[in-house]
């Protein structure tokens, strides 16, 4: 359990984009490494919605394998990461966000979790940046972005860096 120092320093909510960037060793991975280190030292708290954790699992399973997804899941359970359940009020808020804004349902959970926790969302997702510009969510510091096209994902997974190299 994080100590008092983490409470004073603050909380950050991770979305799927941030975790996947770390797993694939994309440009944002270095920033994620720093966040993991700070959380491990008790200087910050890192949170993720259970829905976003599930999204990390299925993305990893589709692009690598189910076995790889299981390894990533187990590794994330060992990381300094607090998993927020999808409570009924959070589900309603995420559904409201999805109904009113252009974003995926999983992204709606990341935003709803960040709003509920009054914490910045760690992401590089362009959809989230648009929501931040409208004042709906507060983002952490700027992150390098990447293409989200199917081809870019396939190319990044085909590189020598695999989720197990991080996990």
Give the overall average pLDDT: 83
Give the N-to-C terminal Cα separation: 21 Å
Uncertain spans, ≥5 residues at pLDDT below 50?
Answer: 1-8, 146-165
CATH superfamily: 5'-nuclease
Determine and state the CATH class: Alpha Beta
Main beta sheet, described?
Answer: 4 strands, parallel
**Distinct helical segment count:** 10
Find the CATH topology: Rossmann fold
Tell me what portion of residues adopts beta-strand conformation: 5-15%
Structurally, how many domains make up the residues?
1
Radius of gyration: 15 Å
Helix content: 55-70%
What does this structure look like?
Helix content is 59%, strand content 8%. By secondary structure, the chain is α/β, with parallel strands linked by helices. The protein has a four-stranded parallel beta sheet. The chain is globular. Residues 1-8 and 146-165 have low confidence and may be disordered.
């Amino acid at each position: 359990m994080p100590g008092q120092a983490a409470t004073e320093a603050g909380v950050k909510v991770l979305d799927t984009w941030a975790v996947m960037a770390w797993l694939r060793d994309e440009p944002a991975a270095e920033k994620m490494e720093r966040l993991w280190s700070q959380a491990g030292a008790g200087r910050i708290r890192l949170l993720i919605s259970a829905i976003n954790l599930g999204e990390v699992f299925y993305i990893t399973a589709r692009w690598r394998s189910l076995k790889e997804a299981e390894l990533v899941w187990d590794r994330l359970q060992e990381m300094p990461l607090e998993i927020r359940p999808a409570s009924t009020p959070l589900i309603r808020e995420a559904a409201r966000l999805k109904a009113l804004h252009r974003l995926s349902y999983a992204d709606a959970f990341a935003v709803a979790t960040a709003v509920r926790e009054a914490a910045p969302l760690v992401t590089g997702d362009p959809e989230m940046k648009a929501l931040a510009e409208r004042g709906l969510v507060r983002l952490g510091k700027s992150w390098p972005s990447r293409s989200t096209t199917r081809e870019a994902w396939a190319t990044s997974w085909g590189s020598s860096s695999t989720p197990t190299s991080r996990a």
